[in-house]
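Open question from group meeting: does this chain pack into something compact, or does most of it stay loose? Before anyone orders reagents, we agreed to write out a predicted structure and look at it together. Recording both the input and the output here so the notebook holds the full record.
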Amino acid sequence: MDGAPPRALTAEAMPVFSEGTYLILSRWSALRMAVDNEWGGRDSSQKADQLTSDIISWFTQSREPLYIDDLEALLDEAMLSLNTEAEDGSIEEVAYKLMTMHEECLEGNFQSVESLRESKQREVSVHHVRQVVNEDGDEDDDISGDDANENDNSSNMILDAPASRPNMNPVDMPVNDSIPKAATEAGDGWVEVTHKRNRGKRN
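Structure tokens returned:
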């Protein structure tokens, strides 16, 4: 795999991969908060959309080998354009998930995208909230769909945000904290991810 040109996605896999890319980025709390708070200006949403397009193009139009380091750099630059530095390791996690999903889509395996769809549907269902008043006169949230503890994890995020450039702490992505930088394909479903170089610590 190292040094080989990237394989092309099939006509069936291409739209699935595009959808999966959007779903992964939409669950990235650092990016979502930067857009919601317009830390990159009024066009923050457009910048996030452009990032999605750039990632899809990077995977599908590149004639050079795909290295996770380059993808991390692309994500890092996009966040800087939003005046945001993600120093919680989420850039590496997002890059790993994208690389893994791409490998799966190349093999016609869309399971991870299907899981993202299901997670998105659950997230939508718990947002159907209405306010009720109990017998004591207190206001409660009556949540339809899944249990309340599955509601939007963004309420649990820790934010350290100086006015100039915020540092983002953890993202609400269902990722394994111990994901290795590279793993060989085995029975547990890991796929190989190639590193071109060691990245220095971001300042």
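Observations to bring back to the group:
The chain is about 40% helix and 10% strand.
The beta strands are 85-86, 129-133, 139-143, 159-160, 167-168.
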